[in-house]
Amino acid sequence: TLKLSLNKLKSIPKEIGNLTLLTTLELEYNQLRGIPREIGKLKQLKILKLSLNKLKNIPKEIGKLTKLKAP
């Protein structure tokens, strides 16, 4: 689990893709404008929280996260 909500983050480094065993990623209430395509490497991710950011687009690689669950 990685909780980074409420941190005024503007970006997430591409190295996030190295956290291949991560199951929960919480990024709500930041200022993110995009998500790196390396997020597609997080094959174990079950929970991804991105609400209340400034996202312009989401990479197609997010479709590789087949274990994601609806809230």
Provide a brief overview of the structure:
The protein is built from no helices and three strands. The chain has strands at residues 2-3, 24-26, 47-49.
Describe how the helices and strands are arranged.
Layout: E1 2-3, E2 24-26, E3 47-49
Parallel strand pairs: 1-2, 2-3
Overall description:
There is one protein chain. With 71 residues, the protein is mostly loops. It contains no helices and three strands. The two termini are 16 Å apart. The mean pLDDT is 96.
Average pLDDT across residues? 96
Largest sheet entry: 3 strands, parallel
Number of strands: 3
Q: Which radius of gyration do the C-alpha atoms yield?
A: 11 Å
Provide the spatial order of strands within the biggest beta sheet. Answer: 1-2-3
| Low-pLDDT segments | none
Strand content: 5-15%
Name the shape in a single word: globular
Secondary structure class reads little secondary structure
- Portion in helices: under 10%
Terminal CA distance reads 16 Å
Give the ordered list of helices and strands. Answer: EEE
The total of helices stands at 0
Pick out its properties:
3-stranded parallel β-sheet; 0% helix; 11% strand; single chain; globular; little secondary structure; 71 residues; 3 strands
